[in-house]
Amino acid sequence: MPVGIFRVCLVVITAIVNHPLLFPKENGTVPENTEEIIQKMKEREENLRLERLRLEQEIADQEATQKALEKAAEVVEESKEEKVRWDMWTALSIVICLLIELWRQDFQEGNWQDTGGEEDDMTVLGKAFKGVAFPNKAVLASFYEKRILGTTGDMARMREMVEGFADDLLEALRSVCNRDADMEVEDCMGVGSMYENWRVRKPFVCDLIVPFAPPEPYCFRSQTWCSGDSFSPDEQGYGTIKVCRADEDVTGCICDKTKLGEDMLCLLHSQANTTRPSSEMEDLLCFKNTQYLDADQVMKWFQIAVTKAWNRISHKYEFDLSFSLLDSPGALKIKFRSGKSVAFNLTPVVQYENSDVYFISHFPRSSLAADLPSSTHWFLTFAVYERRFIQLVSKTLPANACHVSCLQILSFLHGKQCSLTGPSGLTNYHLKTVMLHLLQACPSQDWASEKLEARLQDMLKFLEKCLHEKKLYHFFIGNGKVPAELGFPIIFQRAEPLNLFRPFVLRRDIYRKTVDTFHEMLRNMSALINEYTVHIP
């Protein structure tokens, strides 16, 4: 028993002596854990320091941003205060400018045809005439009689010959065309300077227009720039021509203007009527994949038809016929065996509704005119109404009135000056437009033959004013004073006036050249007239 107790006590003492917490060894685990804890505490301290620096930087940035915002707010507040001071004066200035602009536009639109009615206005406008020696009445009368009057008989004989041949050629053209598929050609009409008796420059060229219509059951439906909003400012004076079936109501149904769904069907038009083969529309001289008449296709068809017609009747004549100008598809030239030649233009046109306004396929272009918007845009010509207006006014003028004489002299001087210094932006049509304006503005008695000098000066001064302002309005478009006897379409009278000099605003080089040519013509006027005038003692 004592021995057992002794063994138990020995085991307990041995266990107590060997306990690691009471007598730790030098290579124990406690020191190792302490170093790791210290290392982690250092890392944590470093992270806390970096976080503190980051927070300090963010606080500094926020303070800087706040200061910048406060400074900007102060600047805005100051600018608002300054703006408020000037708001009343700015608004007042804008109102005054708008009133002045509205008054200017109203004045131009309401009185653009009254210019040239008073001699005082003409004196103020004629700044370019200072120092210019203007020919007197006797010199002008002699010049007109010797140089211009003698060409009237030549023009009459040439018109008669060209019209007779053109009628024969068109009759042969109708015989070679297929009446069921080709366009139907009507009789030709003479327009322009040769038929208004004021052309002076040689060679004389007759301008003939030939209306045509589509074969049955088709018809033409036209739209002008003043009847719709789909035309840009550069397309003023143009229109489009749509080829439709005669029984088709393009204005009463919207199926041709909007896209219908796959499960929707127009109850007015069947699928056969709304979709036409592309080849069928091309046969009708339309632009590819459209229903709009193509001017280039029309001219190709017309040239081929004229060639076929001439081959049929060429044996009847002792001269040759050919196309003379590549850039003018309707230009023809008759060549006689003697070497002489006669030129004339035969141009297809489309009638606008039931009026004498026509869409012309190709119009004589000048350096001032811009390119056509596209071959589906047709230029409108008012040549028939211009000729009728001159004939109507001539009945109210004194005998041997000088209006045509003034235009002939001015056209002669401008043509001679251009032959010396090169072409300019002015054309004979611009000169004719000036005469039409003055015919309407001046009293009838002012166009007596003895007032040739005064009216010629009026035309030159009016042209100078238009060049200075870059504004020469078309005589018929926007003119509410057109005589009712002409039967002119009201839609064009109510349209906005068309400025023929609008391209001068965009083409500064041509404008400068035109003004220089005009001033040079004024300086050389006496010399040019004396050169072609018999000396008067």
Automatic annotation (TrEMBL):
| Molecular function GO labels | protein kinase inhibitor activity
- Where found, per UniProt? Cell membrane; Nucleus outer membrane
Chief localization class? membrane
The record, for InterPro entries, names: ITPRIP-like, Mab-21_HhH/H2TH-like, MAB21L/cGLR
Stored Pfam families: Mab-21_C
Annotated ranges, domain Mab-21-like HhH/H2TH-like:
404-477
Signal peptide stretch: 1-15
Give the record's GO CC terms: nuclear outer membrane; plasma membrane
Q: Which UniProt keywords apply?
A: Cell membrane, Coiled coil, Glycoprotein, Membrane, Nucleus, Receptor, Signal, Transmembrane, Transmembrane helix
Q: Which residues form a coiled coil?
A: 38-82
Q: How does it sit in the membrane?
A: Single-pass type I membrane protein
Say what the protein does: Enhances Ca(2+)-mediated inhibition of inositol 1,4,5-triphosphate receptor (ITPR) Ca(2+) release.
Protein family membership: Belongs to the ITPRIP family.
Q: What is this protein called?
A: Inositol 1,4,5-trisphosphate receptor-interacting protein
Species annotation? Phoenicopterus ruber ruber
